[in-house]
Amino acid sequence: MNRENKRKTFEKGYYKTHACRDTFTCKVCGRLCTPENAGSDHRNHCPNCLSSLHVDIEPGDRESDCGGIMEPVAVWVRRGGEWAIIHRCKRCGALSSNRVAADDNPMKLMSIAMRPLSAPPFPLERIEEMTALMGGEGSVR
Ligand SMILES: [Zn+2]
Ligand SMILES: [Zn+2]
Description:
binds zinc ion, 4-stranded antiparallel sheet, 22% helix, 19% strand, 4 helices, alpha+beta, 6 strands
């Protein structure tokens, strides 16, 4: 996008003081994303595949020129029990944390949360051996 046009559309800090009411088409899964069901003023990621675009440096500032696809790589739990998604830019590697929206795909959220458990860095058959090493009762017999 031409930088001058971008400036006109995205004034610095605009989305910090204005609700983001943009409808956009997800570049990853093609879903049309509307802000109506997000339950929040900022719809910054696709509710279906949870991907986002690298357009912000600080949330809502639209100051980044990267434009890479932000892939959801992890979820974490905020104080109060609210879930947030960690996005990582495929192009430049930047990380950001984003609140989940009310209509985010719960199965996708769960699969991201479970990913480290379903792909442990050691063979599952060795769990007994591992817990024994840690002094636990690893035996199932
Ligand atoms: Zn999507
Ligand atoms: Zn980036």
